[in-house]
Amino acid sequence: MPADPLNSAGPPQRTSSAGPHALHGEAVIMERGSVEVRRSVRRRRTVSAYREGDRTVVMIPARMSADEEQRWVSVMLDKLAAQESRRLLDDDELGRRAAELSQRYLQGRARPDSVRWVTNQNSRWGSCTPALGSIRLSHRLQGMPEYVIDYVMLHELAHLLVPGHGAGFWALLDGYPRTERARGFLEGVAATERLPYVPQARGD
């Protein structure tokens, strides 16, 4: 996966709010890397993003802090990239990917009998039945970045070995380097589109 555009772009460069967007209650923030953030006093909760020529425009509420802005820009850039390079893995490919993840992060100990997409999971991203060795991924994940799908799949693979969310379970996921970023992405999607919430965090 490419580096986070925000990490390579440097700090945002703020422009004067006296431009045309200020007339509509919006302040414009320009960032290196062709990302423009527009803050709106009329925008209360929603965040949106779209391409405008060679720029990416991210619309956020004016009240957001700088840290929230950076996180949401990252989430929305990931979402746009996923939409533009959408490719649906079939169930056979999901099974192969699960085997690769198990080998890489779980010493090959998690061996599901089936991994498949389902359309009846609207309150969770994934689930598993250890007794049957089955893993099911919500169709809502389709088109999201690969590292996000990998995180959810690895989460369910770990449940084949440890059923609950205790310390032993989270220790199995310690080796996956993009856990926090994947969780942040899913939390962002849940907040903006009211989709299923991310699986509970360590210590919840």
Overview of this structure, please?
The chain has 204 residues and is α/β, with parallel strands linked by helices. 38% of the residues lie in helices and 20% in strands. It contains 6 helices and 8 strands. It has helices spanning 5-9, 66-84, 91-105, 146-161, 167-173, 179-193; strands at residues 13-14, 26-31, 35-40, 48-52, 55-61, 114-118, 126-129, 134-138. It has a 5-stranded mixed β-sheet with strand order 1-2-3-5-4, covered by helices on one side. Strands 6-8-7 form a 3-stranded mixed β-sheet. A hairpin with a 2-residue loop joins strand 4 (48-52) and strand 5. The chain starts with a helix and ends in an 11-residue tail after the last helix.
Keywords, please?
five-stranded mixed sheet; alpha/beta; 20% strand; single chain; three-stranded mixed sheet
Principal-axis shape equals elongated
By DSSP (H or I, 4+ residues per run), the number of helices equals: 6
Oligomerization state of this entry?
A: single chain
Uncertain spans: 1-25
